Amino acid sequence: MASVLPSSSTNPSASSVNSFLSAAEREAIKAATFQRLHPRIYLERFLEEKIRPDGRPTAENIEDPNAWRNVEVNVGSITTAPGSALVRIGKTTVVCGIKAEICEPELDNPDEGFLVPNVDLPALCSPKFKPGPPTEEAQVLSERLNEVLGNGMLSLSSLCICSGKSAWVLYVDATVINYDGNVFDATLLAMVCALKNVSLPHADFDPELHRTVCTRSETDPSKPARKLAIQEDLVPLAFSFGVFAGSHLLPDPTASEETLLDTYISVILDAHAQVLSVSQLGAGVDNYEALDQGVNNLPSSREADTLARCISLAKKRQAVLIKKVYNTST
Amino acid sequence: MASDLVIPGQPIPLPRGPVPQLGRGIYEKDSQVRASLVGVPRFEGSSLVISRVRPQPPTSNSVVLGSITRLSPLQALLSIMVVDGIPLPPGEEFTGVIRSQDVRATEKDKVKIGDCFRGGDVVRGLVISLGDARSYFITTARNDLGVIFATSEAGATMEPVSWQEMRCPKTGKVEKRKCAKPEGLL
Amino acid sequence: MQSAFDRRRINGPEDSYHPVFANEIHESSSHVHRIRENRKISDIRPIFLQPGLISQANGSAYIETESMKIACSVYGPRQSKNTAYNEKGRLNVEVKFAPYSCELRRSPLRDAEDRSIAVAIQQALLSSVQLEHFPKSTIDIFLVIIEADGIEGCIASGSIAASTALADAGIDMYGLVTSCATAVKGTDLWIDPTQEESNTANGTLILSCMPALGIVTNVWQSGRIAPSEILACIDACNDRCTDIHSVVAQALLDSAPNKI
């Protein structure tokens, strides 16, 4: 690794940078330089040692809860939003705030309100993004989240105030603050937690004035605010995996790993760990030995095998995560 | 001489005697010496500095590492990824250009860019000047400068055999490059 | 309320509006001269400041003053694209309000308010950065306002966060910039006004300065204020800026061991 670096003696400023550093710090800079020039080889060398660059275990230790990064959830801290959540997965940070507004239902669906999820990947969160309209990545993320949240966890008819006249529209906006990989899982979790946090004021449609009037629960206790009618059974959680070099399955990939992945797999489970959706972009793992023998009914194709493996890992993780998320959000 | 952390704008107490030379991270204004970075001021030789490891833009005489992104008969474009031993974050590369007259010290007019660099080669170079609006001017005209990492047509990492040739360990085929003098090269 | 259909986003109904509450007009008029319950009019809101939370950036800071919440990151110095050769670096500031950051939902499109806040912050910082060290380069400062409580507060807290993030990124500066706002209401000076307080003020003034050098970097005044009151505002803000400077200094020193 060291040979990749310029010799410090050739440059006065390079030597000044190095002279006051400890050996460990110099080593860290060398490693970062090597990663910068040869990111693939850098990751390969870590995985050969059965460890990931951020210190997580790999391969045979994949049952280890430490194969996933730590998750933190903090709900309701934004006072301008009737529902909000901040989620951290490792260093990835996402804030979701929900604004409730009133609108007229569509003619085709007079008894339904609207759920409008969008993700913003601002220039703040990563050097990848520049200021401007939503990037392709943000558009794809928003589209996928819209599909997942539209699975029935919140019936749109519960947002109706007066049939054909008035309904709630929930703008679910997530802002990525730090983009360190697996933004999809983090954003879905933030959106779900924010939705569970929403409390809507009591609303009445006044047919004479043709407008909707809300009441603050503080001024009239007989008209209390209400939580959303969420189908707890159907609340989705996502678990994403990357496949590196056709032989390594990496749960919860970081930003530096994500750029090197051949395949990206997301498993979405409901509250009972039933599969709601699976998506795989790219080929599966072709080295069976890297996989755990724990999967009993090995299907023939390697894609199905990888997916089965991901689903079983996701289910294990879900049991851990659901406890944590529900304890903090209630 | 305090060994405490200082913050930008904070006056730095100087030892008695002549005012030392001021290096990076320190400035003088209205005869007061102050810090311009967060850090610990210390002496480096005769000059007082606050050093900070952070990615920085290339300046004259910076040693840079980068990969070749584009070749033309007159010049090679370099995407600078490391400046003075400190890597730049991905996506924040600076563009450098190696003009044919800056490739080597001798027989400058006979340089064929295609015989010196290929796309994807990792090159060590020295910044000659800030160049024009678009790129920095880089030279490889020194023994320790040039290609330090290259992949052969067969996809293997090549070894240098002379200052202008590298060999593929897979096929044994020799390809032309302007190599840097290997100091225990990869 | 909604802007035109945008196929790059998930779109809601064509038209929607903020909920209207019964007795609202009545209620808000009683707020006009409400006195502060938890702080004196000469006090600023307590500041929580944390440098370095955004690992993808070269430097960053998160600031929270009661309900104000702003994240800031610094990228660069990176190569200036599409600009002429320049001996000095460029300082670029972009501000974005999260859609949920205000009482009324903000359209995700950039509006004039984002820009005017960005200009104010850029002016506050410009003379503090040693741009001559960064030829041909740009330093990008991006701010996301997660929750806003007063435009004056956004500018003041945003400037503090941005200066902290610059120091965290190791950008050479003459000094740290701190900033404080004040509102003139009747004959009183209300320091660090909330949205509600500045709405009912005669005028407001924001002072940005480098307390370590005793140099003012920017003054931003609007509304009706007598010259003598302006001087009083500047004095009051200047004092608070010195207090804030020690908060910023402490936050940077506390986080310094993590970053050489």
Automatic annotation (TrEMBL), chain A:
Q: Which UniProt keywords are given for this protein, alphabetically ordered?
A: Cytoplasm, Exosome, Nucleus, Ribonucleoprotein, Ribosomal protein, RNA-binding, rRNA processing
Residues forming the Exoribonuclease phosphorolytic domain are 69-201
UniProt-annotated location(s): Cytoplasm; Nucleus, Nucleolus
Give an example GO biological process.
Answer: nuclear mRNA surveillance
Listed under GO cellular component are: cytoplasmic exosome (RNase complex); nuclear exosome (RNase complex); nucleolus; ribosome
> Example GO molecular function term?
mRNA 3'-UTR AU-rich region binding
Q: Short name of one Pfam family for this protein?
A: RNase_PH
The family classification in the record reads: Belongs to the RNase PH family.
Official protein name in the record: Ribosomal RNA-processing protein 43
From what organism does this protein derive?
Answer: Lentinula detonsa
TrEMBL record, chain B:
Annotated ranges, domain Exosome complex component CSL4 C-terminal: 91-130
Q: Which Pfam families match?
A: EXOSC1
Cellular component, GO annotation? cytoplasm; nuclear exosome (RNase complex); nucleolus
Q: Which UniProt keywords apply?
A: Cytoplasm, Exosome
- Taxonomy of the source species: Eukaryota, Fungi, Dikarya, Basidiomycota, Agaricomycotina
Molecular function GO terms recorded? RNA binding
Q: What is this protein called?
A: Exosome complex component CSL4 C-terminal domain-containing protein
Where is this protein chiefly located? nucleus
Q: Which SUPFAM superfamilies match?
A: Nucleic acid-binding proteins (SSF50249)
Output one GO BP term: RNA processing
| Annotated localization | Nucleus, Nucleolus
Q: From which source organism is this entry? A: Lentinula detonsa
TrEMBL record, chain C:
Q: Which GO terms describe its molecular function?
A: RNA binding
UniProtKB keywords: Cytoplasm, Exosome, Nucleus, RNA-binding, rRNA processing
Entries under InterPro entries matching the protein: ExoRNase_PH_dom1, ExoRNase_PH_dom2_sf, PNPase/RNase_PH_dom_sf, Ribosomal_Su5_D2-typ_SF, RNase_PH
Q: Which CDD domains does the entry mention? A: RNase_PH_MTR3
Compartments annotated for it: namely: Cytoplasm; Nucleus
Q: What is its main location?
A: cytoplasm
Give an example GO biological process: nuclear mRNA surveillance
**Would you tell me the Gene Ontology cellular component terms?**
cytoplasmic exosome (RNase complex); nuclear exosome (RNase complex); nucleolus
| Domain Exoribonuclease phosphorolytic, first and last residues per copy | 44-171
Q: Which Pfam families match?
A: RNase_PH (PF01138)
Claim: Membrane is one of the keywords in the record: no
Q: Which SUPFAM superfamilies match?
A: Ribonuclease PH domain 2-like (SSF55666), Ribosomal protein S5 domain 2-like (SSF54211)
Name the family the entry cites: Belongs to the RNase PH family.
Q: What is the protein name for this chain? A: 3' exoribonuclease family, domain 1-domain-containing protein
* Organism the protein comes from: Lentinula detonsa
